[in-house]
């Protein structure tokens, strides 16, 4: 009896030590798979907004991801609905789309057709209008807008300016 | 034991230390196989041989492959294909085997379903087999990443995005899996590790489990007949080889298995030498480019059916349907409520179920490859719904089945 309770104690003591070790190593394993600090730090891209031409899609790169920049023509700007306005970025009276160029469905890159001014994602046939708002499923929402900050004529990607915070609060982007 | 005599021969020396005779008896000469099984039962052996080919060719590729985003593409397409002598051979064997292995797995699976080999005490064979299927899928996917071509990159992007769980937006999880915001160096390295170490280890362990699961309940047979293996084995050992319903695995049954393997290998090397192209996606001969998506993204043919189940629905229902397709086969032994372990042809409605399921999966496969437009997306949607409905119907139609 005495013997077996001693074994029982040793068993439990071992279990406790092994349990602590297992949890600690799982934590270490999880952290080892996290993105490296150097990856996280390579974060900011500055765009000179005066360089873009109207109705011509330019793809920039930020955190390895494609960023769509599209300057609206006066006509496109005039036609914006309230919802579309909320998605657009205004700089010095000019309107722009600045979106993450990855389909919100499964991450393909949609292509822009300047003639009918819309995006088509060939993967599963999703479409977006020229403000990046979704017009045909499967994409569940419009193209995401990356964190940005307007500084005069330039746009800094990776920093959350007041306009961006506003968009986030209004549910325009995630 | 622990009592050793001076060995009379090398065999005797080993026998005293490793019990080689006893092992041979258990694994080969007294491992009983029913006589009435056809060539479809040789698929297991074919899979073992194909896995061996993958392992050996993989080892040779491993000697020259470089898991680096800057050099991976050239190490495969230039170094291995052009510089290394016979490098093309290993690559073609590896590529063709990776594709063909799924063809054989599907034949193996559907043979099991047709003959009811997952029932009555054989559930573990089925479950361990399905675990193997899933691990092989992960192995194939991680291997597909390694040449770091356009399809590798975008398949990696799309598949890892699935882990965001639709509107759950678990983007942190996706970034954790990738080790970066997009598939990049960390991603390539860890998928390389998975492909050459962790997953092959898991596969080897599961093959062990799959074989062990088979040893006690024994292999099923063409008529689903319940054989008294001990009585039949006794008959066989007493010399009544013709009257016994079983034969020894080695060397009797092996000779038949090996003949099927021989025919298969001729076909296999015909593909390797003359038709290796089908196993290589042309898009993957462009180096990975994170700023350009290929026009159509589709997986290799063996994933098309489950991809097509994802595709016709909006994100969340699509993901749920996809998840359903991944796990539902595991539950087959429990969803099939009929006690009959006989060929589908003798099971009435289940026979219809079997063939509709088979055709439906072929349709899904074909639609998965075609662009998702017009009539094709409609057919795809109908086929995806049919797939789900078939599984929901299964318990009901098998419950009604008369006992044979
Ligand atoms: S990834 Fe764009 S529609 Fe599916």
UniProtKB/TrEMBL annotation, chain A:
GO terms for molecular function: 2 iron, 2 sulfur cluster binding; metal ion binding; quinol-cytochrome-c reductase activity. InterPro entries: Rieske_2Fe-2S, Rieske_2Fe-2S_sf, Rieske_Fe-S_prot, Rieske_Fe-S_prot_C, TAT_signal, TAT_signal_bac_arc, Ubiquinol_cyt_c_Rdtase_Fe-S-su. The keyword Ribosomal protein does not apply. Residues 92-157 form the Rieske domain. SUPFAM superfamilies: ISP domain. The keyword Ligase does not apply. Coiled coil: none annotated. Its cofactor is [2Fe-2S] cluster. GO terms for cellular component: membrane. Keywords: 2Fe-2S, Disulfide bond, Iron, Iron-sulfur, Membrane, Metal-binding, Molybdenum, Transmembrane, Transmembrane helix. The main subunits of complex b-c1 are: cytochrome b, cytochrome c1 and the Rieske protein. NCBIfam families: Rieske_proteo (TIGR01416), TAT_signal_seq (TIGR01409). This is Ubiquinol-cytochrome c reductase iron-sulfur subunit. It comes from Sulfurimonas marina.
From TrEMBL, chain B:
Keywords: Electron transport, Heme, Iron, Membrane, Metal-binding, Respiratory chain, Transmembrane, Transmembrane helix, Transport. GO terms for molecular function: electron transfer activity; metal ion binding; oxidoreductase activity. Residues 239-404 form the Cytochrome b/b6 C-terminal region profile domain. This is Cytochrome bc complex cytochrome b subunit. It is a multi-pass membrane protein. It is found in: Membrane. InterPro entries: Cyt_b/b6_C, Cyt_b/b6_C_sf, Cyt_b/b6_N, Cytb/b6-like_sf, Cytochrome_b_N_euk/bac, Di-haem_cyt_TM. Residues 10-223 form the Cytochrome b/b6 N-terminal region profile domain. The chain crosses the membrane at residues 39-65, 96-117, 124-146, 191-214, 258-277, 318-336, 348-368, 374-397. The lineage of its organism: Bacteria, Pseudomonadati, Campylobacterota, Epsilonproteobacteria, Campylobacterales. It comes from Sulfurimonas marina.
């Amino acid at each position: 009896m005495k013997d077996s309770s001693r074994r029982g104690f040793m068993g439990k003591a071992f279990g406790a030590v092994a349990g602590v070790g297992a949890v600690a190593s799982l934590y270490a394993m999880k952290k080892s798979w996290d993105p490296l600090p150097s990856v996280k730090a390579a974060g900011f891209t500055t765009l000179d907004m005066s360089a873009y031409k109207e109705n011509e899609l330019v793809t920039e790169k930020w955190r390895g991801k494609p960023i769509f920049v599209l300057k609206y023509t006066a006509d496109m700007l005039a036609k914006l609905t309230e919802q579309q306005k909320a998605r657009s970025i205004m700089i010095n009276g000019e309107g722009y789309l600045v979106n993450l160029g990855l389909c919100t469905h499964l991450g393909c890159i949609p292509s822009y057709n300047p003639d009918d001014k819309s995006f088509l994602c060939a993967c599963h046939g999703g479409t977006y209008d020229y403000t990046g708002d979704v017009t045909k499923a499967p994409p569940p929402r419009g193209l995401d807008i990356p964190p940005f900050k307007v500084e005069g004529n330039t746009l800094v990607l990776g920093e959350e300016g007041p306009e961006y915070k506003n968009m986030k609060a209004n549910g325009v982007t995630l | 034991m622990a009592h050793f005599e001076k060995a009379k021969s090398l065999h005797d020396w080993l026998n005293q230390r490793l019990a080689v005779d006893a092992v041979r008896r258990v694994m080969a000469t007294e491992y009983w196989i029913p006589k009435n099984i056809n060539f479809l039962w040789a698929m297991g052996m074919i899979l073992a041989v194909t896995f061996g080919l993958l392992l050996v060719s993989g080892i040779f590729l491993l000697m020259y492959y470089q898991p680096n985003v800057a050099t991976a593409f050239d190490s495969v397409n230039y170094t291995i294909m052009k510089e290394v002598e016979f490098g093309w051979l290993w690559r073609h064997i590896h590529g063709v085997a990776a594709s063909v292995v799924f063809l054989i797995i599907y034949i193996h699976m559907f043979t099991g379903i047709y003959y009811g080999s997952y029932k009555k005490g054989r559930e573990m064979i089925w479950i361990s087999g399905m675990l193997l299927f899933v691990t092989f899928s992960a192995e194939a996917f991680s291997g597909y990443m390694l040449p770091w071509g356009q399809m590798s990159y975008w398949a990696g992007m799309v598949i890892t995005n699935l882990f965001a769980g639709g509107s759950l937006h678990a983007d942190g999880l996706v970034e954790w899996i990738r080790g970066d915001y997009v598939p990049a160096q960390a991603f390539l390295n860890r998928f390389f590790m998975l492909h050459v170490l962790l997953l092959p280890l898991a596969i080897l362990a599961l093959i062990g489990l799959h074989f062990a699961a088979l040893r006690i309940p024994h292999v099923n047979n063409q008529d689903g007949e319940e054989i008294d293996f001990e009585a039949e084995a006794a008959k066989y050992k007493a010399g009544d080889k013709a009257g016994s319903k079983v034969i020894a695995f080695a060397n009797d049954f092996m000779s038949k298995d090996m003949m099927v393997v021989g025919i298969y290998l001729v076909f296999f090397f015909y593909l390797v030498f003359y038709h290796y192209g089908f196993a290589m996606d042309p898009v993957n001969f462009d180096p990975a480019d994170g700023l350009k998506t290929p026009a159509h993204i589709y997986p290799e043919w063996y994933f098309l059916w489950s991809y097509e189940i994802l595709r016709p629905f909006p994100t969340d229902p699509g993901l749920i349907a996809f998840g359903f397709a991944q796990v539902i086969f595991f539950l087959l032994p429990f969803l099939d409520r009929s006690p009959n372990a006989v060929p589908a042809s003798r099971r009435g409605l289940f026979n219809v179920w079997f063939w509709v399921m088979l055709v439906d999966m072929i349709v899904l496969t074909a639609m998965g490859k075609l662009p998702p437009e017009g009539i094709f997306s409609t057919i795809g949607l109908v086929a995806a719904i049919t797939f789900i409905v078939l599984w929901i119907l299964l318990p009901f139609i098998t419950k009604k089945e008369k006992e044979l």
